[in-house]
Design goal:
Number of domains: 2
Strand order of the largest sheet: 2-3-1-4-5
Largest sheet: 5 strands, antiparallel
Shape: elongated
Oligomer: single chain
Strand content: 25-35%
Radius of gyration: 22 Å
Number of strands: 10
Number of helices: 7
Helix content: 25-40%
Distance between the termini: 58 Å
Amino acid sequence: MQHNTDFAVRYLTTDPVPIRDIIGSLQAVETILGETTKLLPELIPGLQIQKVDIRVREISQNSPLRELFAIGLFVAFQKQLEAEVPQVITDATGVIIPDRFDTIVTVLAMIVVFYGASALKDFVVGRGNEGSAKVQLDALIAELASDLGVSERTIRDRLEARYGEKTLWKRLINGTSRFFAPSKHQDSAAVEVNGRQISQDVVREVPAEYLVEDISDERPARTFENVEIELHAQDRDHTGRGWAAIVNAVSGQRLKMKLMDEVSANELWRKDKIVGDVTVLFDRIGSDLVPREVHLHRVRSGS
């Protein structure tokens, strides 16, 4: 049988979103929905997804940015396991209950987003205080477990098993980074997924735009684009010493900053805040990465 459902993403942005961010977010949602449909059969005994058709139905560039997707799922149930399919999904005849199934798709998609955000944060800044994003992930897993009649541990085990594979892990965190890019570039604007809001505070916790190009690269350095930088020490006569900054997208910690060849000290003199591109160097302490130094490559704006 075929089941159709809508998937709407609304970025509560105030300014027009650059085309590259729109393209990136469309690709990200395609990745997230693809992962969602692959996880569904692992969590619902008896469910088979034979084909998936994901199409963009509408894009509205008027602020806020809105993207509407149409998902066609061609599903079947294994006869020997039909009795195990949760009643929240099917009625006595085995027919899908649309509203309830759509809710499960939405919740699982948001779990994929937040699991990716957690993995991205661990990769960029190391394990530490998980914050409100972790709280929201836990709440979504609890909700899905209740709907499906499975344990939370079962859901976590499926996620860990799937994304323990490095290629899929890389795809997930890159998709998460692209998903949040339209918001991150506009003061971490809130996002709505099928009417469920991801608040500005939660979006702020997701590391700034970062893509993993080489998953074998274990060097403790990460590059961030278009991030806010607070200047806390300045030395107009030197570029390699006397500078300090806080990059809130990475840490609230004051860090030594070095100006790279592309940046002039005169661009920064007497400014309190700038927006720019940086590389952050980390020290590896146990399993954690602790930021230690900022290299500023480009100044985009400042005040």
